Each structure stands twice: as C-alpha cells, then as structure tokens.
From TrEMBL:
SUPFAM superfamilies hit by this protein: N-terminal nucleophile aminohydrolases (Ntn hydrolases), PRTase-like
Protein name: Amidophosphoribosyltransferase
Function: Catalyzes the formation of phosphoribosylamine from phosphoribosylpyrophosphate (PRPP) and glutamine.
Taxonomy of the source species: Bacteria, Bacillati, Bacillota, Bacilli, Bacillales
Naturally occurring in which organism (per UniProt): Calditerricola satsumensis
EC number: 2.4.2.14
C-alpha cells in the first residue's frame, strides 16, 4: 500500500528514492536540483542536496517536493563543483527530517555525505552490533549503518572505508558517497537498483535514471555494473569491482512501473518495454471490447500496446488530478474513501455504453482497482475487463519497495477469480511470468534474464536472515539464492 505525500491512502507500489551526483561543474548544486526534479517520481517525501567546493561540504534538506525544499537563495548557498542529491520515499526509517538524505557526517578523517537508493536486509543486525560497540545513531534510516561502518574502518581513504563497509552489508543499494574532494559510487553485487554514468563536458554525472541526464544536458555513457565501485576525483574516473560476480537481478518493476517512460534501463527504453508488455497481454488475453484505457500514468504505455495489438481504439478514459493537496485530508474513513475519486476521474463520454478494457501495471491490495472499476461503471461502462501487465504480486519485497508483509498483498491469499470478484470486474487477467520476461526483452544470459522476480516467485537473490527475523512468518515461503549463486 502506498501513501501520497498529503497522507492520502493510495493502493500502489512505492520505491524508496532516487539519487543524483555530479563532479566537475561550477554549478553542481543547480544541476543537481534539475536532476532531482527529473527523478521526483521516485520519491516525494523529502529532498536534499550536498555540495563541495573542494574544502567544505554545505547541504540543505527538507520535507516535501524538490521545488518546495529549494529556491534560488538556498541553491546559491550550495557552492562548489561537486554535489550529490536525493529524493526519498520512506520504506526503512520513519518519514521525518532527520532521515532525509543526503546524510552528512563528520569523522576524524573528514566529512562525508551519503545518498542511498535501496534497502539493506541485514542492517538491524549490524546496527545492534555497532550500538553494543558504542555507536550512537541519529536517524532510523538504514543508510546510517554504512556511515558508521566507514567511520569505524580506520581507513584514511574514503574508498577503502567504503570497501570495508560494503563487505558487511547485504541487500539493494545504489550508493553515492561524497567527501570534500571525491565522489565514490557503488552498486550492489546483484544490481537490484538502476544506476547510470554520464558525461557533462569534462565532468561526470551519475543518476538512478537516464531521464536525469536529459534534464541537465549530460550524455549517457553506460550503466554502473553490479558490484562495481567508481571513484571520481581530480585524477578522473577509476573503476573496480569490490565484489565477486553475483547473479544480476534488476528489479522488474523498474520496467513495469517505477522508471519514467523516457528513461533507458539496462539499455532498454522503458516506454517501448511497456508497450511490448501491453502487446504480449493482448496476445495472452484478448477480449471483445469497444475501447482500451490505461490507469495513468505508468499504465498508459502498456494500454497503447494492447490497443495497437488488438485494433481496439485507445482512449483517455481515466484522467489523473495532479493537484490534490493537504487541504483535502479528511478526518473520517468515509471521506478518506473519496481519495481515489479526487485523484482519478472517468471520462463519461468516452466510456458510457462501452465495453472497456482497463490496463493497469499491478494489483497490490485491490482497493484502488475496485474503486476504479466502480468509477468506470458509474460513468456508464457496460463492461469492465481488467488486464494487468505483470504477474500477481504474491510475496513481499525487502529491497526498497513498500510491501513488507504478505497480508498487504491480495494475490498472496486469493485466486485470480477471487480477486476478480473482489474488484468487481467482468474479467481479470495477469500477464504470465514468461510473457513478461519475453516482452521486456532483456538480452541477458543470466537466470531470469537478469531480473529480480522475488515479488512474483518468492525466490530472493540475496540472503534474507535479518529481514525474515524482523518480519517473522509474514514473509511466508521466502527462498533465497544467496549472494554468490
């Protein structure tokens, strides 16, 4: 279950954050602002930027959207040729200012700032050990564990300290660490979260998605490799592996839902991948209908693909209201239930009297799907056929998506027919696992074509001992391949 920044309950998956870093540009903070704005869809609860002029770090963080946290005056104070930035959606740690990133620390070896996308599955165990050894934690974010491990390593060079920390953590992390003079980048050995490297003039840019490169005029160079460590400083760029090869397991929902359509993930354009998902869905589950519509925004590409494959006209049958603010928070459950109506509305003249195919990317709890089907029926739809461009989500994610218990997932305990009845659709179909992998089209020789499929299959790419212990039996049937399998 997701929740908007205004507190409105919204039944969708949410990812933890997006990161952006730049080295070698006199307006580093300003460009980081633009990069974070392009990544705003990855986190809307807090935003932060830390810059360095080669001598000192300056930073600002705040709760809210990038445009709310920063203005010209605040950006002007963040001077330097190097900066990292972060937008956050909370999964590990509470939604409060002290957890906003980048986290900034002062150690005996100097200052450092950290920005992290993902989730560490063993951070509780490490945190307890560090607390017994005398560490004091200022946040409830798992990212702070990394800072303490670096500080306790005794290494004078930040890259050496980070290697020491990376040898102890497990899970998903696209990580940026900045000191007064260096920018260090690391991606977990399974490459669960996306991270790309670009060039801007003589400088370098790193970002969670390539759409951020377009926003600042940078040129895409390549993806950061799983288990790779990059060091960027006045000597240029150096690359190394900090981990033995592990199975590539990029989060499949980057293609299905998270990433912006204009981004390329693993060399594949997200919009085109989603269109192929829609076309495969049409191949597997055609239906006699009059109109196809997608749930905005992430399902529109798949809906277009479905319409093209079937010849059924695509229409904007659902419109998203992007300006629902805090004014609309209401104290009663009856009024909170109006949340979907405030965020989505059906176009009556498009759907009235029609047999409608509604394309969506996933069903989490089923509450939003039920409300959307009801909206379409109230607008006069004669039939509503729901097609989902991913398999049923039956297992929790421990890598930075906000589904940590099976009880949150309707597909974990109900059959497809039971879900159909629960949401009130005339028919319901989920794309097959094989069809999804074929449609996305990653030319990867790894198992599962280099995807993490844990939320669909319950087979996790890393060890999960700490995560399973903290959630007890709620994880239900989790299987792990291990880091080196």
């Amino acid at each position: 279950m997701g929740c908007d920044r205004d507190g409105m309950i919204w039944d969708e998956l949410n990812e933890e954050c997006g990161v952006f870093g730049i080295y070698g540009h006199p307006e580093a903070a300003r460009l980081t602002y633009y990069g974070l704005h392009a990544l705003q869809h990855r986190g809307q609860e807090s935003a932060g930027i830390c810059a360095s002029d080669g001598e000192r770090l300056t930073f600002h963080r705040g709760m809210g959207l990038v445009t709310e946290v920063f203005d010209a005056a605040r950006l002007a104070k963040l001077r330097g040729h190097m900066a990292i930035g972060h937008v956050r959606y909370t999964t590990a740690g509470e939604s409060r200012l002290e957890n906003a990133q980048p986290l900034v620390f002062t150690t005996g070896a100097g200052s450092m700032a950290l920005a992290h996308n993902g989730n560490l599955v063993n951070y509780r165990r490490i945190k307890h050990r560090l607390e017994r050894q005398g560490s004091l934690f200022q946040t409830s974010s798992d990212t702070e564990v990394i800072a303490h491990l670096i500080a306790r390593s005794g290494c004078e060079e930040i890259a050496d300290g980070l290697r020491h920390a990376l040898a102890q953590i497990q899970g998903a992390y696209a990580l940026l660490v900045m000191t007064e003079r260096k920018l260090v980048v690391a991606l977990d050995p399974n490459g669960i979260r996306p991270l790309s490297l670009g060039r801007l003039g003589d400088g370098y840019v790193v970002a969670s998605e390539t759409c951020a490169f377009d926003a600042v005029g940078a040129t895409y160079v390549r993806d950061v490799e799983p288990g790779e460590l990059l060091v960027i400083d006045e000597g240029g760029l150096s690359c190394e592996r900090f981990s033995a090869h592990a199975r590539r397991a990029i989060c499949t929902f980057e293609y299905i839902y998270f990433a912006r359509p204009d981004s390329d993930v693993g060399g594949l354009n997200v919009h085109l991948a989603r269109k192929r998902l829609g076309r495969k869905l049409a191949e597997e589950a055609p239906v006699d209908a009059d109109v196809v519509t997608g749930v905005p925004d992430s399902s529109i590409s798949a809906a277009i693909g479905y319409a093209e494959a079937t010849g059924i006209p695509y229409e904007l049958g659902l419109i998203k209201n992007r300006y629902v603010g805090r004014t609309f928070i209401q104290p009663t459950q009856a009024l909170r239930a109006q949340g979907v109506r405030m965020k989505l509305s059906a176009v009556r003249q498009v759907v009235a009297g029609k047999r409608v195919v509604m394309i969506d990317d996933s069903i989490v709890r089923g509450t939003t799907s039920r409300h959307i089907v009801q909206l379409l029926r109230e607008a006069g739809a004669k039939e509503v056929h729901v097609r989902i461009s991913s398999p049923p989500v039956r297992h929790p994610c421990f890598y930075g998506i906000d589904t940590s218990t099976r009880e949150e997932l309707i597909a974990a305990t109900r059959s497809v027919e039971e879900i159909r009845r629960a949401i009130g659709a005339d028919s319901l179909y989920f794309l097959s696992l094989e069809g999804m992998l074929e449609a996305i089209g990653r030319p990867d020789g790894e198992a599962d074509r280099g995807h993490c499929l844990a939320c669909f299959t319950g087979c996790y790419p890393t060890a999960l001992d700490d995560a399973l212990a903290s959630h007890g039996a709620e994880a239900g049937g989790a299987r792990t391949r291990g880091r080196d399998s």
